[in-house]
Amino acid sequence: MILLASCVFVAQESVDPNFSDDCDVLTKKLILSKDEINTGISCRGGTPEDLAVCLVAYGVILPVGSLIVSGSVVVVGNALNWIETQGCD
Questions:
Q1: Containing domain of residue 52, as a range?
Q2: Is the pTM of this model over 0.85?
């Protein structure tokens, strides 16, 4: 039996010290942060294959999937923020 903890990546708003008060933008600058989650799931099974599937799911698929989704949100959000701030100059 193995108890798992996994990492997930989430998009969070960043406090930008270079932000100008005279530029009123709708989008915020985003950063990618890592959080550890305790899944509370124990990988146990009758066969080594069951254990391997559980470890791959929570050790690889969950972190990589959250990195792809959250990373895409950060890239698109920051691109929109950059385009919006270009109109303030």
A1: 2-86
A2: no
